[in-house]
Structure formats: C-alpha cells, structure tokens
Automatic annotation (TrEMBL):
This is STAS domain-containing protein. PROSITE patterns: STAS. It comes from the Bacteria. SUPFAM superfamilies: SpoIIaa-like (SSF52091). InterPro entries: STAS_dom, STAS_dom_sf. Residues 34-112 form the STAS domain. Pfam families: STAS (PF01740).
Amino acid sequence: MSAPEPVRLLPTAAVPQQAAPRLDVYPLTGRSGFRAVGEVSLPTRDRWERALERVVREAGDVGGEDVYYLELSAVTFVDVAGAGALADTAKNLGGGCRLVLDRPPDSLPRILGLLWPGLPGIEVSTS
C-alpha cells in the first residue's frame, strides 16, 4: 500500500464580499417627510424605526398639514418587520394625519394589504 497522494490546493478567484445592507434617511425640503435610500431589513431596521419614531413626533408639528411624505423610490426592499413598523407608525398618528408612501417598492403595498388590510393612515402614490 502506498501513501495517498497529497491534495494540492489550487488558487481560487477571490470571492467578492457583498456590502452590508444600508439605509440612509434624508429630510425632504419643501414638505414634511423624509427620503429613504437602500433597504429595510434586519441590519438596517434600527435606523428605519428611528426615522418612523421621528414621524410620530413631528406629525403633530407639520404646520397644519395632515400629510407626512415618505419618498421611497430608492428603497429596494422592505421586509415584513419593516412593513410592520410602518403599520404601527400609521396607527400611532393622531389627529387625522396620514402617511403618503411616494413610489415604494412594489412589494410594500402588497405586504401592507395582505397583513394590515384596510389600514387607515397610509396612502400609496405611484407617480
């Protein structure tokens, strides 16, 4: 019996690491609300929830307006927990205030409609 031949490791191409998910939030100019860029998932949920907490605080101070805009055209993904935080925010708005989701990812209105049907306080704008 001969000794097994040693295994030679061949060099492999470097496997690129995916960047960690990001979520950036910027105040809107000219109207009450914020613009979000990135994705809402476990690594970014704290930032999303802090932004939504600010919505509840500021909603009473929007100067007579009853609308708070969330410009979401640059958001690529919102997980179910992020949609739940949004639904909770809508429930916590007082005085007839409403959230207008401006161009959210296609899945977000579907998730909201499926899990929180008929939720008052959220309007989706696709234009």
